[in-house]
From TrEMBL:
Family note: Belongs to the RnfG family.
Membrane topology, as annotated: Multi-pass membrane protein; Single-pass membrane protein
Localization (cell): Cell membrane
Transmembrane segments annotated in the record for this chain: 45-63, 75-93, 174-193, 200-218, 224-243, 255-273, 279-296, 317-336
Protein name, UniProt field: Multifunctional fusion protein
C-alpha cells in the first residue's frame, strides 16, 4: 500500500513562474525609461514616481484590510500600476495628481472588480484617462526646469523643427517616461524573458506607422514617421500597456487583430483628433472589445458542439441598458429640437457682435458675391500649405452710413486647437492692417489655452500690418508682427496665429489683388 500513487486534482502542470516574478520583470523593464526620466526632469520627477507608487500600494493595502481579504501588495502589481501611471504624467504636476490617479486606478478599476486578473481595462491607463478628463489643464502643462514648453509632437504639428535623436532619447519635453529608447530597451527585455510575445507590439507599431504614412499628410517621410513613433507614447502603449495579460486577447491570432485595431485607432486619434492623448484612449477602447476578439479567435476544442436549444440568450442587463440608452437618446433629441432655433439665433448674434468688434467703423455688414464665390471655390478644404489646418469660412464687407467700404471681416478657423476647432473673426482695413480679432468658437482648456481669448493676447494683432505674424513661444516678441504666445499653451497660440495668417494671406491675394 505504501507504493500507491497519490493523484491530485487538476491542474497538474507546475511552474516556478509567479505573479510576483512577472511583475518584477516589468519593473526591471521600466527602469531604463524611469532613469532617463529622472535624469532629464530632475528630482521632481522622482518625487512624482515615488508618491504614485506609494499611493497605489497604500490604496490596495487599505482595501484588503477593510474587506478582510488576503494582503495582495506582495505580488508587486500595485507597484507596477503606480510606476506606469507616474511615467505617463507630466513633470512637475501637483502631488495630488499621482495620488488621485493611483487611487482611481487601484480602487475603482482593480479592487472593485475583484482584484488582479478581474479588471476589464488597464488600471494605470484608466487612472491616466481619469486625470486627463478631470484635470485637463494640469495634465497638458509640460515643464522642464520650471519652464513650460510644447511637446515634440506639438512642435511638429505647428511646423517647427524637432530633433529626432533628442525625442528618441527623451530629452525633449513630455511625460516623465517619454524616452522611447528606454522603453524600447525594456520592451526587448520583456520579449527575451518571455514576459510578452511579439504579436501585439509588432502589430501595433506596424499598423500605426502604415496609417500615419497613408493619411498623416506627409506621405512616407521617414523623418516624420520616426518622430511619430518616438513621441506620443506609442512605444509605451505597444510594449507595456497593450500587452497587459489580463486585458489583452489570449490567442496569438486575437492578439494580432487587437494590435492592428489598436494601432489604427491610435493613428486616427493622432491624425484627426484633438485629444491630449491618443494612445491611452485607443487602448481603453480596444480593452472593451477583448471578450469579442477572444470569442472569434480562440480555437474551439476538438469535439465541441454548439447548443441547439435556443442558443445564447441576451442578458437582461444588456436589454435594460439598450432601453435606457434609447429613451435618453430620444429625450436629448427632443430637447435639441426645441432649442435648435434659439441656439441658432444666439450664434448669429455672437457672429454679429464679433463683426462689430473687429470692424467698429461699419454700420452695416453685407456679402459680396465675388468674394463669396472665391470662398466657395475653396470647397471647405484646408487653406494653403503653410497654415496648418486653417480654413476660410466667409468674408463680410463692412460699410458706413454712405455705403462706403470701411473694412472686411474674414471668418477663419483652425483645427489645430488643443480642444478642437477655434473660429474667429479677423478684421482687415483696406490697406491690409489687422483691426482686431474676435473669437466665435473657443473651447480651449480653461485657465490655459482659453487665455488666447484675453485682450493680453488678442491685442497684439490690433493695428498691425504684416504679411505674416510670427509666434514666439517663450516671449521676446518686440517688433510689429511678432506675437508672444500664452505660456504653457503653445498649441492654442499657434492655432490662432496660423488662422490669422491664413486670413491675411486670403485678403492679400483674393481681396486686394482681386480689386474688390
Amino acid at each position: 500500500m505504501s507504493k500507491l500513487m497519490n493523484v491530485s486534482s487538476s491542474p497538474h502542470v507546475r511552474s516556478k513562474l509567479t505573479t510576483r516574478h512577472v511583475m518584477c520583470d516589468v519593473i526591471l523593464a521600466l527602469l531604463p525609461a524611469t532613469v532617463m526620466g529622472v535624469y532629464h526632469f530632475g528630482f521632481s520627477a522622482l518625487v512624482t514616481i515615488l508618491v504614485s507608487i506609494a499611493a497605489a500600494v497604500l490604496t490596495e493595502f487599505l482595501f484588503d484590510k477593510a474587506t478582510g481579504k488576503e494582503n495582495t501588495i506582495t505580488d508587486c502589481s500595485a507597484i507596477v500600476t503606480g510606476l506606469l501611471l507616474a511615467l505617463c504624467l507630466p513633470n512637475g504636476v501637483p502631488l495630488y495628481i499621482p495620488i488621485l490617479g493611483s487611487l482611481f486606478a487601484i480602487l475603482f478599476t482593480k479592487c472593485c472588480f475583484g482584484g488582479l486578473g478581474h479588471n476589464f481595462m488597464n488600471p494605470a491607463l484608466s487612472g491616466r484617462c481619469f486625470l486627463l478628463i478631470s484635470f485637463a489643464s494640469v495634465m497638458s502643462t509640460y515643464t522642464v526646469d520650471g519652464v513650460s514648453s510644447a511637446t515634440p509632437l506639438a512642435d511638429l504639428a505647428a511646423g517647427n523643427s524637432v530633433s529626432l535623436m533628442q525625442t528618441f532619447l527623451g530629452l525633449n519635453n513630455g511625460v516623465i517616461g517619454c524616452s522611447a529608447a528606454g522603453l524600447l530597451l525594456g520592451g526587448i527585455y520583456l520579449l527575451i524573458v518571455g514576459g510578452i510575445t511579439w504579436e501585439i507590439p509588432v502589430s501595433v507599431l506596424v499598423s500605426f506607422t502604415a496609417f500615419i504614412a497613408l493619411f498623416g499628410g506627409h506621405g512616407f517621410d521617414v523623418q516624420y514617421l520616426l518622430l511619430q513613433l518616438a513621441g506620443g507614447g506609442i512605444v509605451m502603449g505597444a510594449f507595456f500597456m497593450a500587452t497587459d495579460p489580463v486585458t489583452c486577447p489570449l490567442a496569438s491570432g486575437g492578439q494580432l487583430i487587437y494590435g492592428v485595431a489598436l494601432g489604427i485607432l491610435a493613428a486616427v486619434f493622432r491624425v484627426f483628433g484633438t485629444s491630449a492623448d491618443s494612445v491611452s484612449y485607443a487602448i481603453i477602447i480596444c480593452n472593451m472589445f477583448v471578450p469579442l476578439i477572444d470569442e472569434i479567435s480562440i480555437p474551439k476544442p476538438f469535439g465541441y458542439r454548439k447548443r441547439k436549444e435556443g442558443g445564447k440568450k441576451i442578458p437582461t442587463a444588456a436589454i435594460a441598458l439598450c432601453v435606457i440608452t434609447l429613451v435618453a437618446g430620444v429625450a436629448l433629441s427632443g430637447v435639441y429640437k426645441m432649442t435648435e432655433g434659439k441656439i441658432a439665433e444666439q450664434q448669429l448674434a455672437a457672429k454679429a457682435a464679433s463683426y462689430q468688434e473687429v470692424c467698429p467703423d461699419a454700420v452695416e455688414f453685407t456679402y459680396d458675391d465675388a468674394l463669396t464665390a472665391k470662398v466657395d471655390a475653396l470647397n471647405g478644404e484646408v487653406y494653403g500649405t503653410d497654415f496648418g489646418k486653417a480654413y476660410i469660412n466667409e468674408v463680410i464687407v463692412g460699410k458706413d452710413a454712405s455705403g462706403n467700404v470701411t473694412g472686411y471681416v474674414i471668418s477663419a478657423s483652425s483645427g489645430d486647437g488643443m480642444e478642437g476647432e477655434i473660429t474667429m473673426s479677423v478684421g482687415m482695413a483696406a490697406d491690409g492692417t489687422v483691426t482686431g480679432i474676435s473669437f466665435t468658437v473657443l473651447n480651449e482648456t480653461a485657465g490655459l489655452g482659453s487665455l488666447v481669448g484675453e485682450d493680453a493676447f488678442k491685442s497684439q494683432f490690433d493695428g498691425v500690418k504684416a504679411d505674416k505674424f510670427t509666434l514666439f513661444k517663450s516671449g521676446g516678441a518686440s517688433a510689429p508682427g511678432e506675437i508672444n504666445g500664452v505660456s504653457g499653451a503653445t498649441i492654442s497660440s499657434s492655432a490662432v496665429v496660423n488662422a490669422v495668417n491664413a486670413a491675411v494671406d486670403f485678403f492679400e491675394n483674393d481681396i486686394q489683388q482681386g480689386g474688390n
